[in-house]
Amino acid sequence: MRRAFPGVSAFVLAMSFVVATANPSPAALRPSRVAAAAATAGPALPACSTAAAAAPDLSTVKTAFAPVPGGSPFGVAVSPDSRFAFVASVAEPLSVYSLALGGPAPVGTVSIGDAQTAGVTLTRDGRYLLAADDTGALVFRTSTLEKGGSLSFGAIATTLRSGGSGAIEVATSPDGHFAFVTLEDSQEMAVFNLRRALAHGFGGSDLVGYVPLGLAPVGIAVSTSGRDLFVTSEGTTASETEGTLTTVNLAKAERAPSHAVVSTVPAGCNPVRVVATRSTVFVTSRASDAVVAFSVAGLVSHPAHALLGSVQVGEAPVGLALVKHDTRLVVADSNRFGASVAPSDLAVVTVGSNGQMTLGGYVDAGAFPRDMALSPNGKLLLVCNFDSGQLEAVQVAGLP
User: Fold this and answer.
1) To which H or E segment does residue 279 belong?
2) Residue 326: other Cβ atoms inside 10 A
3) SS3 252
């Protein structure tokens, strides 16, 4: 069953402790941000918070905005050659943009009934785009999408369906043979045999099974080694805001998903997105206004001691992306619940060799920045501004 508010689970609505108020203008707030914020001293999880950290405005960073048809963009992915961006949204299942001139220029849309897509990802070879939808995912042929124009069902290679609900983020195995979809409303992650579904059309046997997770599972990332998956869950019970990060053995998930969990650790208040380097896992803790860092090795061998630290950012951070060869994190401070402490923006965090994080400043964004994707050539960071209906392109070279 479809959610009336895509991306807003019943748990999120119930646990929203921020009172919605009219936001003051960015100009009225930004001058107070006068000093960079350093990482939390010592390995301690941040408490729940609605206090945006102080840091300089990065007004010299170049950005460009393009409207998204129908508005409400959710997820974005960029082709391996950095020439095209694919944007999923509530209104239009998919919009296609050319990046040839350094900024997003619309070239096509895909309209498929009442489909409401969320997170997206590309297989490593770039042949297929997966968009989380309903109980699983829609799988598109990128060669068809890149032709542009008005498209419909002909762009779909196959459809993945499970018995769960609330599909929100998606990832694929490094070899492209399997797909993993977090089911926000079902407290689990569905595992699909993507290679078989593409070869023969989706059938019931292509649903391998489910990985059990916490309440409102959302974010998902594949480790750089391809050995593990990292998945966030926003809570543990309906009365708790503290959520978790679960480490899943990828190979076991492909064979026996219900037995693939390696560890589960606390990850702050309402953790929602996750990215990873070879050594470190970074999680946005939305209701802590923070990014939390964990040791990759520690999550597998010593989970109780895997926490490395945290850094406070802006209000209600959601998406995050690693840029500049993993030396910077860009964090989407969504302010999705309308707190008066700060506007929506993009926090830029410097990442040290030991995982230490320092907040360096804020880049302007539209309303409710959500998912993000870095172009493979490292030049553009694409941001989905959900409430203002925009795709934003940030020139990475200008980031400090």
Assistant:
1) none
2) 16
3) helix
Distance CA 33, CA 348 (A): 13
> pTM of the entire structure?
0.90
Q: In what order do the strands lie in the sheet with 136-141?
A: 117-122, 128-133, 136-141, 156-160
Angle at 225 between CA 76 and CA 186, to 5 degrees: 55
Q: CA dist 321 to 164, 274, 347, Å? A: 28, 9, 11
- Quick one: tokens of 339? 């707190």
Average pLDDT over residues 273-302: 97
pLDDT at 240 over 80: no
Radius of gyration of the chain (CA): 19
Structural tokens at position 35? 């000093």
For the cut 50, the answer to whether the pLDDT of residue 305 exceeds it is yes
The residue-averaged pLDDT of 47-56 equals 92
Contact 289/52 with Cβ under 8 angstroms? yes
Show Cβ contacts of residue 123 under 8 Å, excluding neighbours closer than 6 positions: 130, 172, 176, 194
Among the listed ranges 65-79, 232-246, 275-289, which one has the minimum average pLDDT value?
232-246
Query: 74: phi > 0 → left, psi -120 to 50 → alpha, else beta; which?
Result: alpha
Provide the token pair at 72.
Answer: 């409400």
Q: 142, 129 in Cβ contact below 8 A?
A: yes
Give the C-alpha separation, 311 to 354, whole Å.
14
Distance CA 200, CA 364 (A): 46
* Alpha-carbon dihedral sign for residues 131, 11, 188, 265: positive
